[in-house]
Design brief:
The protein has helices at residues 11-14, 151-154, 161-170, and strands spanning 26-29, 38-41, 50-53, 58-60, 66-70, 73-76, 85-86, 92-95, 100-103, 116-117, 130-131, 142-143. The protein is an alpha+beta fold. The protein has a single domain, classed as Beta Complex (Beta-clip-like), CATH 2.170.270.10. It has a 3-stranded antiparallel sheet with strand order 3-9-8, with no helix packed on it. It has a 3-stranded antiparallel sheet with strand order 4-6-5. A hairpin with a 2-residue loop joins strand 5 (66-70) and strand 6 (73-76). The longest helix has 10 residues, at 161-170. The relative contact order is 0.20. One of its GO terms (biological process) is methylation. Residues 13-27 have a biased composition (Basic and acidic residues).
């Protein structure tokens, strides 16, 4: 399944071909096309398994390259994980409280699978919303963060604690 418009790599990762940060776990397909690069699994893992720990981050601000970690906090991944694109049928979960990337609970990960996560699971309000083209049966269409999604649209997705808290405050 093709992934939706990904968060592109930060300029440091995009403009150079740095040494891979997870050479045993993923390969990056770089594309000169804007938002065309992506990450693909090199390993088979069972549903729910740990894919990678998130290390080497730096504090950031809301930007298309950052990941939200709390109500008002963001990080830059500074790793090949930045190439994990969005999908409405994701293969991974980015757990920002544990600083882990795990395989979704619903299905195992196979070598060659696109590495994707559901951006609203970490992002309350995205810096650069986009029209999703992931092709999933339950594609959510316009992706702008969890803030603009109904409880029904978010049902069934694993969500970070800060997203759950912000959603509950909205009620």
């Amino acid at each position: 399944m093709p992934s939706a418009d990904p968060i592109p790599a930060s300029p440091a990762l995009r403009d150079k071909a740095p040494s891979p940060t997870h050479p045993d776990r993923l390969r990056v397909n770089r594309s000169p096309k804007a938002f065309g690069s992506g990450a693909y699994s090199l390993v088979d893992l069972p549903a729910g398994a740990l894919f990678a720990t998130i290390t080497g981050t730096t504090p950031g601000h809301k930007a298309y390259t950052s990941v939200q970690t709390g109500r008002d906090t963001h990080i830059e991944l500074n790793s090949d994980l930045v190439y994990c694109n969005h999908s409405c049928a994701p293969s991974l979960v980015f757990d920002m409280a544990r600083m882990e990337v795990r395989v979704v609970d619903e299905k195992p990960l196979k070598a060659g699978d696109a590495l994707t996560f559901f951006y609203p699971s970490t992002e309350w309000e995205m810096d650069q919303p986009f029209q999703c083209t992931c092709g999933a049966n339950a594609c959510r269409g316009w992706i702008s963060g969890a803030k603009t999604m109904s409880a029904e649209e978010l049902d069934g997705y694993w969500l970070n604690g800060h997203i759950v808290q912000l959603r509950n405050e909205r009620k």
